[in-house]
From TrEMBL:
This is Serine/threonine-protein phosphatase with EF-hands. Its EC number is 3.1.3.16. Its cofactor is Mn(2+). It is an enzyme of class 3 (hydrolase). Keywords: Calcium, Hydrolase, Manganese, Metal-binding, Repeat. InterPro entries: Calcineurin-like_PHP, EF-hand-dom_pair, EF_Hand_1_Ca_BS, EF_hand_dom, Metallo-depent_PP-like, PPP_dom, PPP_phosphatase, Ser/Thr-Pase_EF-hand_contain. PANTHER family: SERINE/THREONINE-PROTEIN PHOSPHATASE 5-RELATED, SERINE_THREONINE-PROTEIN PHOSPHATASE WITH EF-HANDS 2. Residues 557-592, 641-676, 681-716 form the EF-hand domain. It comes from Pterocles gutturalis (yellow-throated sandgrouse). SMART domains: EFh, PP2Ac.
Length: 717
């Protein structure tokens, strides 16, 4: 009996123990699931903050250039000096002819000193040159300016021979590797080559744009990619991204990086890169089934049109679209004989008599494009014949005389598109993003391109007999993401893009079956040394802290607007509003589309009665920023809000990228702005202003002095 009772007791004890263990396991599981859910919620909120701020900055960039386009369309230069300044400031990047560019960027005149210990290049390039470059860049060495210019010269020559849409086949290699945005992060490129192998006759690569900006080694990435492009022209393919644009580079760091690394020859290098960028192909087709473009498509995207566009005309798709279009209209008017001829001023010398220039017949309607093209060909031929008679040249010299400034003779039988139509085609494929909803609408978040839905994707796939699209342009937490029923694949190759641990990078490999295989990575030494638990929590906390710091800066930069918005809810002027009204007011000012009620605990201290003393809260924000910048609060707010735009404006004016602008450039710029803002500022007034901000009296204005000018004018208003 005694032993039986003992067995039962042991059994009950074991059962109770198992039951307790099971309950503990369930509780731990529930706790862990809640923890992971909270972690994921924090991660998504952080992600929303980073993306909203990034896209708002891109929107500011496009607004800034729309503003400059408006200025250009509505400002009439009053003197030859002003006309020359406008030309240098906005269109000099497009004015270099072939011979002028080669003369300006003459690499042969540069001598490499014996003391130079970096890699040396000789052309044609060999695989050993690429290996030497990779090793040199790992050791933080710099390639001599002569070799950089020589490489850019050879790259430009090669790119000019390529079509707008590159064609790649998996028949000639085992697979094709597609990489997305790199954004100056050389470690990511090194890791891709380490995992996947270097480009070779059996290893094809497509790099889908955005090689530069934001990261610190954009130039090294370009040098490596251009080197492999020249060594393996059939295996390496480069697409243009929205950051392969000179005007974008002025804002996001690449222009500054080049000038810091090459202080003597940086201007020449930038000019060559600017020209190389406009020759990059716009898209790549794999086996005629997979279309690779940087951004996306729109409901007006036409691949046939993209194949025929003269892509090098668009050094920047952001710059002067209206003005360029008006120039085209002037050209057509000139062909029609409608140009207004100003009367010679009194006392001017009469030019020698010249053969009468043929007056073109009336142009047919542009609606009939074939008839219009024939008319243009006839008109151009008449103009060429007149030029021959004028200079008495023979028929044998036909090839030397072209009329390319009006229209390319080789394209006369092709459809006649306006520059604005062509620009929109390129803008859409470089700047657009997919959306889950049907249809196509303007991309107001970025400020350029469009949002395209699944129906737009299906339409272009069906029209061109494609299987799916690969695009980049958007940072994804896992490095890649499918949408539109797996018909659109986003691939992003810059890991830790916002902050260490914020996202993985990825690339995709396609074999003859065109089934995508993904490889993910994180190119950061810190991330590899973390334990599993630390990898779950630590990166989130680090990224979250960085995101909220950026958000607080954004809030502080809009202090004045926030006060006005808060006062609208504070009718009795108590200095207090509800937290719900706080969230509504903040969104009405910042327009970031963030879940402010969810973010509130990280931004606002909790109160017992649910009310917020908004002036005290804003003072706390100001104190936090002033602890980093020892400047008065009102000025600091203005600088935080406008610094990126002001720095971009400064770099546009600073045409030689010296970091200084002359008194004359400052004078003409301020006159341009004041005419737009209806501020009456005399020449003497501008001269007094420029002298007052030239603190070191060196006859030039640096960026800090430029900010001071902005503050002084702001104060006067």
């Amino acid at each position: 009996m005694g032993s039986g009772n003992s067995v039962n007791a042991n059994y009950k004890y074991s059962l109770q123990k198992s039951e307790n263990a099971f309950k503990a396991a369930v509780l731990i599981q529930q706790w862990y699931r809640r923890y992971v859910a909270r972690l994921e919620m924090r991660r998504r909120c952080t992600w929303r903050i980073f993306q909203s701020i990034e896209y708002a900055c891109e929107q500011d960039q496009i607004k800034l250039h729309n503003f400059f386009s408006y200025l250009m369309d509505h400002f009439t230069p009053s003197s030859s000096k002003e006309r020359d300044f406008i030309s240098r400031m906005f269109i000099s990047g497009e004015s270099f002819k072939e011979a002028e560019l080669e003369k300006y960027c003459d690499y042969e005149s540069l001598e490499v000193p014996d003391s130079y210990t970096g890699p040396r290049l000789s052309f044609p390039l060999l695989p050993d040159h690429a290996t030497a470059l990779l090793e040199a860049f790992k050791q933080k060495q710099q390639l001599h300016a002569r070799y950089v210019l020589n490489l850019l010269h050879e790259t430009r020559k090669h790119l000019k021979q390529l079509p707008n849409i590159s064609h790649v086949s998996t028949c000639y290699s085992e697979e094709v590797t597609v990489c997305g945005d790199l954004h100056g992060q050389l470690d990511d490129l090194f890791l891709i080559f380490y995992k996947n192998g270097l480009p070779s006759p059996s290893k094809s690569y497509v790099f889908n744009g955005d090689f530069v900006d934001r990261g610190k080694q954009s130039l090294e990435i370009l040098i490596v990619l251009f080197t492999f492009l020249l060594i393996y022209p059939k295996e390496v393919h480069l697409n243009r991204g929205n950051h392969e644009d000179h005007m974008v580079n002025l804002r996001y760091g690449f222009a500054k990086e080049v000038m810091q690394k090459y202080k003597v020859h940086g201007k020449k290098i930038l000019k060559m890169i600017q020209n190389v960028f406009c020759w990059l192909p716009l898209a790549t087709l794999i086996d005629q089934k997979v279309l690779i473009i940087h951004g996306g498509i729109s409901d007006t995207t036409d691949l046939d049109m993209l194949e025929k566009i003269q892509r090098n005309k668009f050094i920047s798709v952001l710059r002067g679209k209206k003005r360029k279009e008006s120039n085209r209209n002037v050209e057509i008017q000139e062909l029609n004989g409608e140009t207004k001829v100003e009367a010679d001023p009194p006392g001017s010398e009469t030019a020698p008599s010249l053969p009468l220039q043929p007056r073109p017949s009336q142009a047919p309607s542009m609606a009939n494009k074939l008839e219009f093209s024939r008319w243009v060909r006839q008109t151009v031929q008449e103009q060429i014949d007149w030029c021959r008679r004028l200079v008495d040249i023979s028929e044998s010299e036909d090839e030397e005389l072209t009329y390319s400034s009006v229209v390319s003779l080789t394209d006369l039988d092709k459809p006649c598109w306006t520059r604005q139509e062509e620009c929109k085609q390129i803008l859409d494929i470089l700047w657009s993003d997919p959306m889950p909803q049907e249809g196509c609408r303007a991309n107001t978040v970025r400020g350029g391109g469009c949002y395209f839905g699944p129906d737009v994707t299906e339409k272009i796939l069906e029209k061109h007999n494609l299987q799916f699209l690969i695009r980049s342009h958007e940072c994804k937490q896992e490095g890649y993401e499918f949408c539109h029923n797996r018909k659109v694949l986003t691939i992003f190759s810059a890991s830790n893009y916002y902050e260490i641990g914020s996202n993985r990078g990825a690339y995709v490999k396609l074999g003859p079956d065109l089934v995508p295989h993904f490889v993910q990575y994180q190119a950061n030494k810190t991330a590899h040394t973390l334990t599993m638990t630390q990898r779950q929590g630590f990166p989130v906390a680090l990224v979250e802290e960085s995101a909220f710091r950026a958000l607080r800066e954004k809030l502080f930069a809009h202090t004045s607007a926030l006060i006005s918005a808060f006062k609208a809810y504070d009718k009795d002027n108590t200095g207090r509003i509800t937290l719900s009204n706080w969230a509504t007011a903040v969104e009405s000012v910042l327009h970031l589309g963030l879940p402010w009620r969810m973010l509130r605990p990280q931004l606002v201290r909790s109160t017992a009665d649910g009310m917020l003393e908004y002036k005290s809260w804003l003072n706390d924000l100001a104190m936090e920023q002033r602890s980093q910048e020892h400047i008065q609060s009102s000025l600091l707010e203005v600088i935080y809000r406008n610094r990126s735009n002001l720095e971009t404006i400064f770099r546009i004016i600073d045409r030689d990228h010296s970091g200084l602008i002359s008194f004359e450039e400052f004078h003409q710029t301020w006159k341009l702005f004041s005419s737009h803002m209806n501020i009456e500022l005399t020449d003497d007034g501008i001269n007094d202003l420029v002298r007052s901000i030239d603190f070191n009296k060196d006859g030039n204005i640096d960026f800090n002095e430029f900010l001071e000018a902005f503050r002084l004018v702001k104060q006067s208003q």
